[in-house]
Amino acid sequence: MSIEQKETAVGADEIVQVRREGDVTIVTMNYPERRNAFSMKMRLALTEVFQRLMHDDPDTRAIVLTGAGGHFCAGGDLSEMHAATPPLLALRERIAVGVRLFKLIYTGTKPVVAAVEGTCYGAGVSLAAACDVVVSADTAKYSCAFSKVGLLPDTGILWTLPQKIGGGKARELMLRGNVIDAAEARRLGLVSEVAASGRVLDAAIETAARFASYPPVTLALLKASLVNAGNSIEDACRLETDLNPLTRQTSDHTEAVKAFMEKRKPVFTGA
């Protein structure tokens, strides 16, 4: 099913909404009555959408992840946790779904830009940290609040947050669970860009559109390299040696060189 077909099938009450602007697809968490809490329904819906966008939709070249109702994501849905504790295997599957979603965003072939307004707590920070770029409202608030509700950090943040802001600061934020503002999140490196409230989604779409204009194969290989090159200097050198020759053989590389010589804008096809 194409994005256009999917879009017509998704009503305003759907927990995840999808729409396209050119080569950019905007994914909106739509659970505003609970500030887009990361419920099981939300986890499953986001996983299905990102699986399709990353693997089955060649027309999408970049993705924006945002939230409805002036908030990004308030973290886990505590109303679900208020009921009787599920069996251990059910709890493991709940976490496993979040892990699958994290991997789709973080290791997927297409750039993902988070557009963060309002509350970004717990799993909301995990989702933002998994994205390649975070555009934040100047009024947004961030908190790794897992420990305050007796839970361990999840949805990949044990890996992504130290990678983004360093081990010491990540340890402090996750242990304390304190609230920080957008300016502090930007200083630490969690946030890439700060925009005025109400302007965030437009800024995120502009950033994603720039990514969408780049050669898709190169971006896919770059994301794979960034995920796998950090373990050792040997890994980094091996990836450089193995993958750079592949980019040299793409039609998009040839087009980039030709456009430069002809002083015009290149047109990339993903070949």
UniProtKB/TrEMBL annotation:
GO terms for biological process: fatty acid metabolic process. Pfam families: ECH_1. Belongs to the enoyl-CoA hydratase/isomerase family. Gene3D superfamilies: 2-enoyl-CoA Hydratase, Chain A, domain 1, Lyase 2-enoyl-coa Hydratase, Chain A, domain 2. This is Enoyl-CoA hydratase/carnithine racemase. It comes from the Bacteria. InterPro entries: ClpP/crotonase-like_dom_sf, Ech1-like, Enoyl-CoA_hydra/iso, Enoyl-CoA_hydra_C. GO terms for molecular function: isomerase activity. CDD domains: crotonase-like (cd06558).
